[in-house]
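Worked example 3 (structure in, sequence out).
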């Protein structure tokens, strides 16, 4: 996958163009790929504050399908931090129309790489 990562303020962003090899039903982005986009953009938000963390839990609400060739924008931010627990939220938008295609929330746990 070719993902373009950027940030605006405290929000992490990823742009992605839907490719045929990432579709499930003909021409429709596979839901698992949507989940990967959310994992990546939310981790990007977490890493922007200098934290190394792993995904512990993710919940995705699918609203509309993304189609082959669509330019998508995933945007995420940290919504809460308590100790080693970091909660993030994200949305996936179809850039041309501005439609929200999916939303997600995730829990990341800060880790010490030397102890993994």
């Amino acid at each position: 996958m070719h993902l373009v990562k950027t940030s605006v303020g405290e929000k992490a962003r990823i742009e992605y163009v839907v490719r045929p090899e990432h579709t499930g039903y003909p021409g429709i982005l596979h839901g698992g790929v949507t989940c990967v986009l959310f994992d990546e953009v939310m981790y990007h938000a977490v890493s922007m504050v200098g934290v190394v963390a792993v995904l512990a839990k993710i919940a995705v609400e699918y609203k509309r399908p993304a189609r082959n060739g669509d330019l998508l924008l995933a945007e995420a931010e940290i919504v809460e931090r308590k100790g080693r627990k970091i909660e993030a939220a994200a949305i996936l938008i179809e850039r041309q129309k501005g439609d929200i295609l999916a939303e997600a929330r995730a829990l990341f746990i800060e880790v010490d790489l030397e102890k993994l």
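Notes: The mean pLDDT is 95. The CA atoms of residues 46 and 78 lie 7 Å apart.
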